[in-house]
């Protein structure tokens, strides 16, 4: 079963241009066959047979599902296949097709892509450097005289 049908809402030339620009097929939310795709909250995507298919890598405010080319074709598991029971073991990070709404879905992939920073990394670095700057003079002016007094 298909996981992605493109183009939808854009021309094939636009789909091809974007895909070539990024180096892999890039799909939009309206091009996903949601009942055949598992979208995890952090943007990782799988087919219904649990094969990793790619990630959501937003760019310029546009959601882009970048799918590994080798994952576009495949055969879904039949319901009597023993491997389908793994679907019942999926945790709460999965957004199932009946829960997916392309217009309201907000991916957290942006914060995990390494291309965007929420500033927390800089705050942690600044606090660490600030603490070191304060501790070194404290040691020099308070602890060293105490050690010198004990020696003398």
From TrEMBL:
InterPro entries, sorted: Mss4-like_sf
Transmembrane segments: 122-143
UniProt superkingdom: Eukaryota
UniProt keywords, alphabetically: Membrane, Transmembrane, Transmembrane helix
Protein name: Uncharacterized protein
Source organism of the structure: Cyclotella atomus
